[in-house]
Specification:
336 residues; alpha/beta; TIM Barrel; 2 domains; 8-stranded parallel β-sheet; two-stranded antiparallel sheet; 42% helix; binds iron/sulfur cluster
Amino acid sequence: MKYVTLGRTGLQVSQLSFGGIPIQRSDAANTKAVVDKLEEYGINYIDTARGYTVSEEYLGAALEGRRDKFILATKSMSRDKESMARDIETSLQNLRTGCIELYQIHNLPEKDIGKVFGPGGAYEALSEAKAAGKIGHIGVTAHSADALKILVEQYDHRLETVMFPYNIVEDQGKEVLTLAREKGMGTIAMKPLAGGNLDDYALALRYIAAAGVCDVMIPGMGSPEEVDRNAAVDLTAPLTQEELEQCAAVRRELGTQFCRRCNYCAPCPNGIDIPGCFLMANYTKKYGLADWARARYDAMPYHAGSCVMCGACEKRCPYHLPIRDMLMDVAKVFGR
Ligand code: SF4
Ligand code: SF4
């Protein structure tokens, strides 16, 4: 396993690291098995979030007796001081530790930056927690290129790391992430598989390593087999001309309007599982999965066709997807 320095945090982390989103669809026993695999391969950086339901708790339990082998990163959507302070305490409790190495402001859009760094903002709680030794370093995660630019250009003296989507079909952060690195910030690639839209995981991970823009990549891994699969990828192998053309073809096919399955659009007042609908529609295009996808879609309690077009979800989607139009396409695929 290759280890890299995560910017000026000085933390030595594995280039291939672990994203904890899938743990919320898992259970305690499987989480332990996943962490066993991480330990076996020397994958030492674990990223989770207050928002990933049970992820912090399961990971905390799985880390009992081996906490010193891992570097922990978590994050909170809190924007004010009081709720951020509360979330830090909850994370410490859930992760069963006295200090979390990296605590991040989660999914910070441009409109909330002033609030977070202003008087009574979340950053004050993070600074105090750092001074008290409850957290080691402070970082941020963002989904919009505009927010990323402001954070790196104006707040780099307060933030030690930045996490942003980076993958074959999303390299809009390339320039600013490069600047972040030059300024000494650690750079973390989220959504290396574009929210599960990239089938060739080996190519996807190698693309990020070859780009040299992010220190670390954190694919979500929900099973020991997925850890085996990702750990087997040779991240030092440069991309061939043929593989570069393959990446260009994927870019053409997927475009920019695709769901990353982050679920920030939830909740739909009508109970529609928005990313689930898109996922099932995508599966119908994959070889051998059409019938399976249709059965799964039919079993969902609410379908795309029951969208009442209120638009609430679109206001929350950080990728500004035309969710309503996209759901109508899903309804056409499945006829409901
Ligand atoms: S627009 Fe449709 S999918 Fe979105 S929140 Fe409203 S009802 Fe739900
Ligand atoms: S529709 Fe947007 S907010 Fe919802 S899961 Fe997909 S990318 Fe995320």
